[in-house]
Amino acid sequence: MRLNYPANIKIIRVPCTGKVDVMHLLRAIQKGADGVYVVGCIEGTCHYNEGNLRAKERVNYVRMRLEEIGIEGDRVRMYNLSSGEGPTFAAYAKEMTENIRNLGPNPLKKARKAEQDRSD
Amino acid sequence: MAERGEPKSGSRLEKILRAGHFAFTGELGPPRGANAEAVKKKAAHLKGNVDSVNITDNQTAVVRMASWAACIFLLQEGLEPNFQMVCRDRNRLAMQSDILGAYAHGIRNILCLSGDHPKFGDQPNAKGVFDIDSMQLINLVKFMRDEKKFPSGTELDEPPRMFIGAASNPFAEPYEWRVQRLAKKIQAGADFVQTQCIYNMDRFREFMKKAVDMGLHEKCYILAGVTPMKSVGMAQYMAKSVPGMDVPESVINRLRGAGKGKASEEGIKFAIEQIQEFKEMEGVAGVHLMAIEWEHMVPEIAERAGVLPRPELS
Amino acid sequence: MIVAKRKPIEEIKKMLKGYKKVLNVGCGTCVAVCLAGGEKEVEVLNAQLDMARRLEEDPIEMGAFTCERQCDREYLGTLDEKVKQYEAILSMACGAGVQFIAERYPDKPVFPAVDTTFIGVNQGVGWYEERCRSCSSCVLGLTGGICPVTMCAKGLFNGPCGGTNKGMCEVSKDQPCAWHMIYERLKQQGRLDCIKELQPMTEWQNQVPRTVIQPGYRKPEKETEQQKA
Question: How many angstroms separate the first and last alpha carbons of chain C?
Fold first, then answer.
């Protein structure tokens, strides 16, 4: 299967989405990523029983913490699919990219630029 | 009725009860403002029709004119007030000073209550005091009256000779414990009790039977609470939304069955039937009529229930 | 354990307004267990503050340090050097920890990042319930192990009041009536006599700051005074 998905996505592999910590997600945004999403197994099929459910809770938590400081929570999302669903993976990648394009760049980048402009 | 010792107070209500008359007491909610006329106007409907008038104390945790202040207006109008005091708004120091002040002004009855939680009121985050509870308040008044002392042990120069009342709710769970709790209030010092509004007559009969079996009616005067229903809506509201209230479906159906515009008359009829039954019920020493914002109906209800004229005391 | 809730970010931001370099000190005991102010929460809050202040073009440098227990002097020594490098301290400990830090560094402004909420139990992950008001006059022996001061909305010692509602408290359909529970438990144990007698007015012990010195111990100052004498 040769499927195309947007090239602007950097994939970080983890053994299970249960391994994804809230700080991994927060740091991504803090360091300038425009968005970050977690792709886990279908709910109910986690090899470790509830790894993907925990990931979902963490994603929701990070969304809430971002909203609190005025950054769109939707920059962080959770998707679920099974390992055999290559086309779905590509579709989600496109959907997330669309979503982020609509939101625009990470507002922290704009702030940083303003700061640099001021110090120049 | 068994001997009850010397009179505890100079209260007219006490005299009526001691003389073996069937007592009939009313209730008046002070205004939400400094309006003396509002108190006097409500009081006029009750004068001559009841033996004593409960003056509520910030009922449902909504601020109103102070109970003791409205009590004084009643005294001026020639009625006997029953000063309600809740544990929610005062600590034990304020309670003692208010009791002394009330007695000095001629108030002779006090009804000791826990009080609705502040959450029910319009200032729900006010701090509920609850330094002591209603049981302890009953005991505090009794101690001041009978031992002529403050709780600290210091002598009182003029004790408040109050006739001490308490509330009893036969309809709140755990039902089996409610008679025990009444016994505990009597042990704490209650001279009389007024019950929660009664609609479930079966449960009340059962409650009274237990109270009589324990001899509680000989240690304390039990006044049955009656609130006439004004409408089907009121009955439904009380059934659903008032904690500790037991309004059987049959009562709601009866009001509904009366037809449009006739529910209030049916409510009054039910109240009158209740009062007539309470007159005959063993252990019931009187009725406490809580005609909520319906004080002007009290003369008619009293008349039709056959409790008029109120006995004259020498 | 002591249970706390993190303050809203807006409130924390307001306290830190004007400061450029702040040390966030977490506590590894109660507030870590209840997910309010441990190492992880320090990291999250620092990331939030960093981002929030950058968005406002007024950056702040947040330091992080989580000690075992902020209420215990033994664990604070390592903090002394670190504190010197910061203008102010944000503490994620309970109110006791915050005050202990403020007492140790009297020249530094110390701000609380959590609202200390209650002494409670862990009912599930992230789910805590209050159980004790530390009133200093425990009656649990009489009330079937259910605290009337904490669990009854009116703190009645001779309950239940007339507001029980199908076994629930009048203030909420989700809150069981404490006195209903007390009655049921004592009945089950055949101990209803415990609540038949009037419980007299409580002599409140929690009206002034309390100190406990266990038998056989004393304040070190006293010791030195005695030695001097």
Answer: 41
CB A70 within 8 A of CB A110: no
Q: E-assigned strands of B2-128?
A: 23-28, 52-55, 81-86, 109-113
Contact C159 B133 (CB under 8 A): yes
- The reported pLDDT for the residue numbered C223 is 55
Q: How sure is the predictor about B4, in pLDDT bands with cuts at 50, 70 and 90?
A: confident
Q: Residue B165: in which H helix or E strand, if any?
A: strand B163-168
Beta-carbon separation of B243 and C165 below 8 A: yes
Domains and CATH numbers, chain C: 2-118 (3.40.50.2300), 133-195 (no CATH)
* CA atoms within 13 A of residue B31's CA, in its CB half-sphere: 12
DSSP letter, residue C193:
G
Give the span between the Cα atoms of B51 and C122, in whole angstroms.
Answer: 55
Which token pair is B309? 């004229």
User: Would you say B267 and B228 are in contact if contact means Cβ atoms under 8 Å apart?
Assistant: yes
Of C158, C165, C200, the CB nearest to B244: C165
Please determine, for residue C220, whether its predicted confidence score (pLDDT) is greater than 90: no
| Token pair recorded at residue A103 | 């939101």
CATH number for the region B12-305 comes to 3.20.20.220
Nearest to C64 by CA among C84, C87, C80, C41: C41
Q: What is the 3-state secondary structure (H, E, C) of B259-299?
A: CCCCHHHHHHHHHHHHHHHHHHCCCEEEEEECCCCCHHHHH
Q: What integer pLDDT is reported at residue C123 of this predicted model?
A: 96
All residues at 6 or more sequence positions from B285 whose CB lies less than 8 Å from its CB, including other chains: B17, B22, B23, B192, B217, B221, B222, B223
Q: Which of C136, C170, C130 is nearest to C153 (CA)?
A: C170
CA–CA gap between residue C100 and residue C102 (Å, rounded): 5
Q: Which helix (H) or strand (E) holds C27?
A: strand C21-27
Tokens of B92: 């034990």
pLDDT tens track for C86-111: 999 999 999 999 999 999 999 999 99
- Report the side by side order of strands in the sheet with C127-132: C2-6, C114-124, C127-132
Q: Do chains A and B touch (3 or more CB pairs under 8 A)?
A: no
pLDDT at A24 over 90: yes
Torsion of CA C138, C144, C150, C154, to 10 degrees: -110
Where are chain B's structural domains? 12-305
- The shortest CB-CB distance from C51 to any of A71, A114, A118 is to A71
Contact status of C161 with chain B (Cβ, < 8 Å): yes
Q: By the 8 A CB rule, do B255 and B263 touch? A: yes
Beta strands C110-112; A76-80: pairing state: unpaired
CB under 8 Å to C115, separation ≥6 — which residues? C4, C5, C6, C7
Is the C-alpha dihedral spanning B276, B280, B281, B285 positive or negative?
positive
- How far apart CA B235 and CA B267 sit, in angstroms, is 9
Q: Locate tokens 């227990």: which residue?
A: C69
